Amino acid sequence: MLEAGQFAVTSEVGPPKGTDPTVVTRKGTRLKDYCDALNVTDNQTAIVRLSSLAGCALLRQVGVETVMQIVCRDRNRIAIQSDVLGAIALGIRNFLCLSGDHQMFGNHPTAKNVFDLDSIQLIAALKKMRDEKKFLCGDDISGEVPIFIGAAENPFADPFEFRAVRLAKKVRAGAQFIQTQAVYDIPKFARFMEMVREKGLDKEVHILAGIIPIRSAGMARYMQSSVPGVYVPEEVVNRMKGAKVAKEEGMKIALEDIEQLRQVPGVHGIHLMAVGWEEEAVPALVEKSGLYPRPEV
Amino acid sequence: MIKARQKPLKDIAPMVAPFSRVLVLGCNTCSAICLAGGEKEVAILASTLRMQSRLNGQQKELGEFVVKRQCEMEFVEEARELIQSHDAVLSLACGVGMNFVAEMFPEKPVLPGNDTMFLGLPRELGVFAERCVACGDCIIHLTGGLCPIARCAKHLFNGPCGGSCGGRCEISPDIPCIWQMIYDKLARLGQLASLEELIPVRDWKANEALGPRSFVRQDLQVKEK
């Protein structure tokens, strides 16, 4: 989709804190016509869930194009490379390389973290696996390694001037697509994209702007104060507080943001993260923003 | 220096409970400097345990001694007789000293009176902070002299994660984001371009990954003729 020059729509499936495969396949079946690919998160916020590898494999069974998220927090280079081989064998083609939320945010704060690699080193490792058909150690990989490598970037983290530099490092390491942290402050995001274009990165990598539709004023306030890396302006919190029907206002804000983000040069798609209400919010957002039906590639 | 912190009494008391003659053994180097195992701390802990023992209707004997360094044989040797005349050693050294005493006296139980925290410094009175993880392969010439392995919660090598906010780490507003500090330092040095370099996958062999580490300096070894 991205390589064909189309404006892409991706979303994500949060796997269950349990073993029921239908939680994943139901979400996948519901969302697949509205999105070009679905991410499966890798124990997001360090809460133990069904693995991203298994989640992607389940989605493949119902015909969904998947993006397998990989965090560096829980596995070393041996485990990660092994999982990538397994994922390819199961038909998974897209990978999103992340550092991972610190374990203290999750449900096992007493765990030991790994971080053998950082996210940029992970990107480089996957590129080496694909381009040279070699593991990090230099040994040969048998079979094909047909993968599309993604990374995340948070335009709202500090130091702000460094974010485009960091994005450039990810691109140089091998990232082909970027899914950003949720965008609520469009002017700041536009300034970030200006820096990205100055470096010519918009020509080298597909950037999908992140959208998290907000369900309630409480969620807005919580994300503003307690979710690392998410920047929610006061204005958005106030709009949610003042709304008669919070969900509708949240959808309205998301649709306005999508409309504006589509105008920002260098944005090649959106990534919808409707945590907890994806089955309701994602189809509605895609339809109402005029991005439905999804084009065939 | 090595920073240690005395364990709470509720953890120490059950460890010493089975023994009637316990030597509280301090260390006058790192442990004394961070006020966890010098003469004063040894005296206070010994008398606290003595009082507790009497309150419990026991007559526990608590010896007190402080060696210059618990990690070197010649100094520990000075405590040999005292160690041998007690049932157990309650060490107020760092983990290095504790291990060494346990190795030197194979028959003697050694109990940890301290938790060894890290290699660090006193940031202000009563506040100690980590600065080095002794990883065995220093890279701080690339990072403005500031260590991302010791001081980044995810020990990232290629710049701050998405959780760096206002110079603070995502895990706590009390922890400065070391990558923000590295960025600021390199900006002052006019070396920001070095942050554009990709730092490749690390060889952790020099770190604890391979198990207990040791190294040899042949120039210091005594050669047999």
In short:
The complex is a heterodimer of chains A (297) and B (225). In chain A, 41% of the residues lie in helices and 15% in strands. With 297 residues, chain A is α/β, with parallel strands linked by helices.
Keywords:
heterodimer; A: 297 residues; alpha/beta; TIM Barrel; eight-stranded parallel beta barrel; 10 helices; B: 225 residues; Rossmann fold; four-stranded parallel β-sheet; three-stranded antiparallel β-sheet; 8 helices; 9 strands; 29% helix; 22% strand; elongated
Question: What's the layout of helices and strands?
Answer:
The complex is a heterodimer of chains A (297) and B (225).
Chain A: E1 8-13, H1 21-31, E2 37-40, H2 52-61, E3 66-71, H3 77-89, E4 94-98, H4 119-131, E5 148-153, H5 160-173, E6 177-182, H6 186-198, E7 206-211, H7 217-226, H8 234-242, H9 246-263, E8 267-272, H10 278-288
Parallel strand pairs in A: 1-2, 1-8, 2-3, 3-4, 4-5, 5-6, 6-7, 7-8
Helix pairs in contact in A: 1-2, 5-6, 7-8, 8-9
Chain B: E1 2-6, H1 9-16, E2 21-27, H2 30-33, H3 39-55, E3 61-67, H4 73-77, H5 80-84, E4 88-91, H6 95-104, E5 110-112, E6 114-124, E7 127-132, H7 148-151, E8 168-169, E9 172-176, H8 178-189
Parallel strand pairs in B: 2-3, 2-4, 4-5
Antiparallel strand pairs in B: 1-6, 6-7, 8-9
Query: Quaternary state, please?
Result: heterodimer
CATH topology type of the largest domain in chain B: Rossmann fold
**Strand arrangement, major sheet of chain A:** 1-2-3-4-5-6-7-8
Helical proportion of chain A? Answer: 40-55%
Number of domains of chain A: 1
* Total number of strands of chain A: 8
Shape of chain B: elongated
Kindly provide the radius of gyration of chain A, computed on alpha-carbon positions and rounded to a whole number of angstroms.
18 Å
Q: What structural class do helix, strand and pairing data of chain A support?
A: alpha/beta
The largest pleated sheet of chain A is described as:
8 strands, parallel, barrel
What is the CATH T-level topology of chain A?
Answer: TIM Barrel
How big a fraction of the residues of chain A is strand? Answer: 15-25%
